[in-house]
Amino acid sequence: MNQRHHIESLIVVAVAAYAAKHFSRKHSKGSRRGKQTKHRERRTVEQIYQCLGDVYFRRAYRMSWLSFWKLHDKLCGPIEETIAKAAKIRKEARRKEKQKRGVGISNRLNPTPPPPPNGTISTSVRLACALRYYAGGSVYDIMSSYGISHTEVFESVWYVVDAVNASFNINYPRNHDEQKKIAAEFKAVSAVEFDVCAGAIDGILIWILKPPLEDAEAVGVDQMKFMCGRKHKYGLNCQAVCDVRGRFLDMSIICGGASSDLVAFEGSDLKKLLDDGILAHNLCLFGDNAYINSQYMATPYPNTSGGARDNYNYFHSQLRIRIECAFGMFVQRWGMLRTAIPSNVTVPKTISLVLALAKLHNFCIDEAEVIPANLLSQDEQNITGNRNGSVPLVADPLIAEIINVNTTTPLDLMGGGEHFDDAPRHYRRPLHNDALRSRLCNHVESTFKTRPRRREP
Prior knowledge:
Low-confidence stretches: 10-32
Strand content: 5-15%
Radius of gyration: 27 Å
Helix content: 40-55%
Distance between the termini: 97 Å
Mean pLDDT: 87
Shape: globular
Structural class: alpha/beta
């Protein structure tokens, strides 16, 4: 009797176990149908901070503990709104899919969704995951640190992109007092006290993998328009203007990597504003010879060797080179830009991502956040070990010579647009409006200052 009772008990337990397993598979909220939800133990940002401490938290997240929470306070609401909007879109997509398959729809108007199997992911964790990914962290390290899935990491990345773009702006200031303040900051670092520079401009290649044909067609160009011949990489031509601190004042991404800096600038909104006279009297931008000298753009004299014009070129480069430093800080801060953006990220999403990173870069500068001298070793390994390759950050001796600052720059992403291959013929004439540049050259002569002797290697 006892043996029979024991056997029956085993049968009941086995049936119950099978039923529970079947039910779990059927109702699992895993990423694939029939896949069981993995049990994950959520961890908070506070717990991570307690493990890392001040120094390593700043190295990992590119900002201090206090700056992180200041940023979170600004982005918390927009992140929640973005998550709610995404949930609504997914719900509508499921409803349409059911209609397409002829599946009956519940009569309940507002069914309550089940709670997340492992608990809700807080907005602070969403932000932390995104910052770690932007900095060059491995998605697998981020997953294990916070106890969330691979999918949730990438969803957090895009939730934060949308929230940042909704909360911050990068638009060149139209207020003349603000422009004069920018020029005064440049004057303070100019050896000849140039007081006309209201921003330094240049271009950088945003490296992407070869976009699918349908993605290229969606933006109205051929795939080869994204190929930068000088750098042998697919990408986007990013035009940016910065102040003396490296803070971005304007950013435009409207052309593929094949485009010259000139054509990319000519198509930008800033160019139209400059043509309409947005700048205060006597102010201009400082750019290199990829641009055309004009009443609002001061460029170097080409083909000079010694003399007044060469002296002007040197002191001009003292200010213009600040944009190269800004690009160096930008890519060093957000290490993911040292690798190619995957081909499954569309061109419009890539543009949104880069603009969001530029806005976060500005936030860090406003908070006086200094870029750590060294990356976390695991981040450097993740970046350099990328299967599609990576670009190094190298010390630029020219920057060290001109402004006596030791900084690293992504040289493999810079200078790709310095050509006139796609520029209209009339742009290739040597001079257009040289009054501004002549005045600056005369000013240098009046100071009796000359280019320093080149340092011996």
